[in-house]
Design a protein that fits this description.
alpha/beta; 5 helices; seven-stranded mixed β-sheet; globular
Length: 177
């Protein structure tokens, strides 16, 4: 896993082969952040929430680009430990790893974020409900953005908060405001 740009540009972290997570490809990640450049003022030190963090690839990229706080929620203890370890190696205290269930976290979250990113397992039974849950909980700041990574079988274009969709190979991103 490598960081594409920012203060950690070029840094590599070896993801253990035993991990079940499907990290966002470098190609998709680079294009995602190119799109986000139009929505996010990185110099303002935005706050971010990375749901279903997996390997922490998105967390790293968000921190590298200048987020003042990134909360990473990951249920798998090994993955959570991996995220915690690379944050310790970097000495970056702006990353806050949380080991827990995303839906339970969302149910009790009282914070708002400029950027909310979710990369759930594509087979997650209630994946289609995530935009409603995130938007109803008022977790995204008024000028913030929610990005959902999903498989090609999902179409969120009729959602009232939907603003755009991007596809990069088998990786799809839907954007909500």
């Amino acid at each position: 896993m490598r960081v594409i740009t920012g203060i950690y540009k070029g840094r590599h972290f070896d993801v253990p082969r035993s991990f079940k997570a499907r990290p966002t490809t470098d190609f998709a990640k680079e294009n995602l952040f190119n799109v986000l450049n139009g929505y996010v003022d990185w110099e303002a030190g935005p706050t971010a929430l990375d749901l279903f963090s997996g390997t922490g690839s998105i967390t790293l990229e968000l921190l590298s680009r200048g987020c003042s706080q990134v909360v990473s929620v990951e249920k798998d203890r090994l993955h959570h430990g991996f995220i915690r370890s690379f944050l310790e190696k970097l000495g970056d205290e702006n990353g806050i790893p949380v080991c827990g269930d995303v839906f339970k976290y969302l149910a009790r979250c009282n914070e708002q974020f400029d950027v909310v990113f979710a990369d759930p397992p594509y087979q997650l039974p209630n994946l289609a409900e995530l935009p409603d849950i995130v938007m109803a909980r008022n977790i995204v700041k008024s000028n913030g953005i929610f990005i959902l990574e999903h498989g090609k079988t999902y179409d969120f274009s009729a959602h009232p908060n939907f603003i755009e969709h991007r596809a990069y190979g088998s990786v799809n991103f839907s954007f909500f405001r």
